[in-house]
């Protein structure tokens, strides 16, 4: 059972901004700039750790049709990262935020294992990954471990599926061979003049290892919304998990399987931007809009001092 590797996550000590705080920068930015996603893990049919992913509805303004983790913006200043992620998960895919209801209906509770440092989304939100684990009651038989009657919110999610967490290790591990990922890529690029990771993981749409209770959830995608692609190399339709979601899951896999201890997320960049007039409670600044749209020549050095740019380049130079 791969659940034994979760001890690495429990022992992981997050490094927040400037390594000077035990609190994430998430609590420093305005509420309108806070977002949280749920990395919901469970054990698959062969004892492997799997993570639940969704395809975002075409009705959404940002990143419609993309593969993502359940999540969204904070509602108010007193809402914690896990409260935000669990509320959004309930709204998007129907898994209750309340453990008492989960225990009574399904026979499990959602263990809140860890919150990771925040990542900077290209929409200039501080995104905190919250890692949860579906912990079944030991008296619940294996064939009874089913999440019945899951219903997607058509305004939020078009489909739901799961993949093995180990498949996000990069490069692939000699010990933990990919189970379902058909191909992956990693490009060390730049965004706004700072080092940035662009990762991609391609999975087959038709997956014989999928758990039945996810296969039974109605796919709300219309043919015009279909984001899968016929992959000429493998002659199957595929889903591509890339961008921020791919980076988060890569880091989670590194922590759990390899005990990764290096810097993850972009806490220092978020803190620096906040202290230099960006990430304010009102709408996005002119600079943020230009960088979000990948305007040519737009650089973080426009709003951050040279010594801070140099420090951030050193901090983020490694994958």
TrEMBL record:
Per UniProt, the keywords (alphabetical) are: Hydrolase, Magnesium, Manganese, Metal-binding
- PANTHER family the UniProt entry points to: NUDIX HYDROLASE, PEROXISOMAL COENZYME A DIPHOSPHATASE NUDT7
What sequence ranges are listed for the domain Nudix hydrolase? 32-187
Kindly indicate where the leader peptide sits in this chain.
none
Origin organism is Pichia kudriavzevii (Yeast)
An example Gene Ontology CC term for this record:
peroxisome
Would you tell me the protein name for this molecule?
Peroxisomal coenzyme A diphosphatase 1, peroxisomal
Annotated GO biological process: coenzyme A catabolic process; DNA repair
Q: Which GO molecular function, any one, fits this protein according to its record?
A: 8-oxo-7,8-dihydroguanosine triphosphate pyrophosphatase activity
